[in-house]
Design brief:
Blueprint (H helix, E strand, L loop, with lengths): L1 H28 L23 E12 L11 E19 L5 E7 L1 E6 L6 E4 L3 E4 L4 E5 L6 E9 L8
Antiparallel strand pairs: 1-2, 2-7, 2-8, 3-6, 3-8, 4-5, 4-7
Length: about 160
């Protein structure tokens, strides 16, 4: 009985590992549109002062990373859902101290990055890494509501940047 339970647990574990690896392989291939190399320059786009428009930001969960085995002091791993209505704007913000991964679950949205002279289009299924050196704003130019899932590592608990 114990051996069959261990065997079943092992099979389930291997199945889950296969699903995770498959998802990671798919996610790696699904990285969002990027800035063309000949259009990249530091600070080519100036900061804009748009306010949030037609966007909701809901924190679905968070983990205090100092209380985890990694012991990352003053950091929180946060998972959020952003909903951006047609015409909606996610205002200018920086990721110099807040790395993030954005998954576009639904719709199409345009990013205006500080280091790219061209707008960058992100479509459903895309994943966009946001790291040091990334400052940008986003706008939904389409007719469909955009849904983004965001995982970020936040230092300042009062930082409410989107």
């Amino acid at each position: 009985m114990l051996k069959s339970r261990q065997s079943r647990t092992l099979r389930q574990g291997l199945s889950l590992a296969g699903i995770v690896m498959s998802s990671l392989a798919t996610a790696s291939a699904a990285f969002a549109g990027e800035c063309p190399a000949d259009k990249m320059r530091p600070d080519i786009r100036e900061k804009v002062d748009f306010k949030p428009v037609g966007v909701t930001d809901v924190t679905l969960g968070a983990i205090d990373l100092e209380k985890q085995p990694a012991h990352i002091k003053d950091r929180e791993l946060r998972f959020r859902k952003l909903t951006v209505e047609p015409g909606g704007i996610v205002p200018w913000h920086s990721h110099d101290d807040r790395p993030a991964l954005i998954f576009v679950q639904q719709g199409e949205i345009v990013e205006y990055a500080s280091n790219c002279s061209e707008p960058i289009v992100h479509k459903a299924g895309d994943i966009r890494p946001e790291v040091f050196g990334t400052s940008h704003w986003w706008k939904n130019l389409g007719k469909e509501t955009v849904i983004l899932y965001v995982g970020d590592v936040r230092k300042d608990p009062h930082d409410h940047n989107m």
